[in-house]
Amino acid sequence: MTHHDIHVIGGGLAGSEAAWQLASAGFKVRLSEMRGGGDMTPAHQTDGLAELVCSNSFRSDDAERNAVGLLHAEMRALGSLVMTAADAHQLPAGSALAVDRDRFSEQVTRTLAEHPNITIVRERVDTLPTDTPAIVATGPLTAPALAEAIGGATGADALAFFDAIAPIVHAESIDMSIAWKQSRWDKAGPAGDGKDYINCPLDREQYAAFHAALIAGEKSEFREWENVPYFDGCMPIEVMAERGFDTLRFGPMKGVGLDDPRTGRWPHACVQLRQDNAQGTLWNIVGFQTKLKYAEQVRIFRTIPGLENAEFARLGGLHRNTFIRSPVLLDHELRLKSRPNLRFAGQITGCEGYVESSAIGLIAGRFAAAELAGRSLPTPPVETALGALLSHITGGAEADSYQPMNVNFGLFPPIEGRTKKADRKLMYTARARAAFTEWTAALEPVAA
């Protein structure tokens, strides 16, 4: 296929989802991905489309009480390729949706490659199309030449922050005479049995020593990335440790709801590992994104009870994320105001997280498909998870202080009156479902 109706640049989660939505609507898509064509990013390990770089978790799948779970449900209803692949390769993770990252990526890649309306081209794109329709979904690791071109087109400097990767441990190297399997409060998800996490307990003395080691450990040098802020939702463990002695044990190392079988009590602190592949041979350390040097990671993490002989399939790392000032640069359909042939999607818009990135790719693809068909797609209501996230990106956020954001109920229009927190969440999701149903009922089918 030489002709295409639209060019999607970037084969990550957002680009893959956008291409799928467009192709499903009958439009010819050129999907460009530089990995596999001789280029690689500092964080990716394969050339698979929609590779999961950091965690393997899509976070909570609870559509009744959680904003990201609600977004899952809305994406499923809109025929999301990403959610279909995630559901097909789900792993036990309590109420969260975790996936086998390799099989997930393989399914997305295969599905797109087999679609007759999609041509996947392994190429690095260094310039932006000047007049033909395109969706830029190159993500937070956009190649320098294209990043420079984006800077020229937007007329504004890109913002940046650090994003850190958690290490992965071989299951056979974990001492299960110390560690045990349990989900917090024994809560089981659709793919689990209430024993979805491996837990490594620390008493107060062990925690104090671990905390001190994190702070004293040798870190990676910043060099040209110095003075770039972290995103709070993906903060390195040692940076959290520096915020206070008890910060970790009230964060990723909290022991509440976990009963140590050796004592029958909750530990002072606890490190959790989550299954990372279908075979259960690899487990990632939850919340342990880090910028510690590799040797320091091995030394310090092996002081955790149960991980004294841990073998690491992957150590943690650090990479730079870039995103544009979307609230002032993009219109409500994700078009660049100065060059409306270009749409932006995914993390480069300033949304944060696998699900959010995919969701913005989905709606960008649908906006583009409607425009190609000569129609207008109504913007999803702000009462929905998709609409709330889109509204935040395209104008709801304060532009001067714009930072990456996960979907959360704080982005939704407030519920009037005083209610209990648990009841308020149910009210948010009930209102969202009603608004989403009304919106989808009014959508016209889009076809080339």
UniProtKB/TrEMBL annotation:
<dbReference type="GO" id="GO:0030488">
    <property type="term" value="P:tRNA methylation"/>
</dbReference>
<dbReference type="GO" id="GO:0005829">
    <property type="term" value="C:cytosol"/>
</dbReference>
<keyword id="KW-0819">tRNA processing</keyword>
<comment type="function">
    <text>NAD-binding protein involved in the addition of a carboxymethylaminomethyl (cmnm) group at the wobble position (U34) of certain tRNAs, forming tRNA-cmnm(5)s(2)U34.</text>
</comment>
<dbReference type="InterPro" id="IPR004417">
    <property type="entry name" value="TrmFO"/>
</dbReference>
<dbReference type="InterPro" id="IPR020595">
    <property type="entry name" value="MnmG-rel_CS"/>
</dbReference>
<dbReference type="InterPro" id="IPR002218">
    <property type="entry name" value="MnmG-rel"/>
</dbReference>
<protein>
    <recommendedName>
        <fullName>Methylenetetrahydrofolate--tRNA-(uracil-5-)-methyltransferase TrmFO</fullName>
        <ecNumber>2.1.1.74</ecNumber>
    </recommendedName>
</protein>
<feature type="binding site">
    <location>
        <begin position="10"/>
        <end position="15"/>
    </location>
    <ligand>
        <name>FAD</name>
    </ligand>
</feature>
<keyword id="KW-0963">Cytoplasm</keyword>
<dbReference type="GO" id="GO:0002098">
    <property type="term" value="P:tRNA wobble uridine modification"/>
</dbReference>
<keyword id="KW-0808">Transferase</keyword>
<comment type="function">
    <text>Catalyzes the folate-dependent formation of 5-methyl-uridine at position 54 (M-5-U54) in all tRNAs.</text>
</comment>
<comment type="similarity">
    <text>Belongs to the MnmG family. TrmFO subfamily.</text>
</comment>
<dbReference type="GO" id="GO:0050660">
    <property type="term" value="F:flavin adenine dinucleotide binding"/>
</dbReference>
<feature type="domain" description="MnmG N-terminal">
    <location>
        <begin position="5"/>
        <end position="375"/>
    </location>
</feature>
<dbReference type="GO" id="GO:0047151">
    <property type="term" value="F:tRNA (uracil(54)-C5)-methyltransferase activity, 5,10-methylenetetrahydrofolate-dependent"/>
</dbReference>
<dbReference type="InterPro" id="IPR040131">
    <property type="entry name" value="MnmG_N"/>
</dbReference>
<keyword id="KW-0521">NADP</keyword>
<keyword id="KW-0520">NAD</keyword>
<dbReference type="Pfam" id="PF01134">
    <property type="entry name" value="GIDA"/>
</dbReference>
<dbReference type="InterPro" id="IPR036188">
    <property type="entry name" value="FAD/NAD-bd_sf"/>
</dbReference>
<keyword id="KW-0274">FAD</keyword>
<keyword id="KW-0285">Flavoprotein</keyword>
<keyword id="KW-0489">Methyltransferase</keyword>
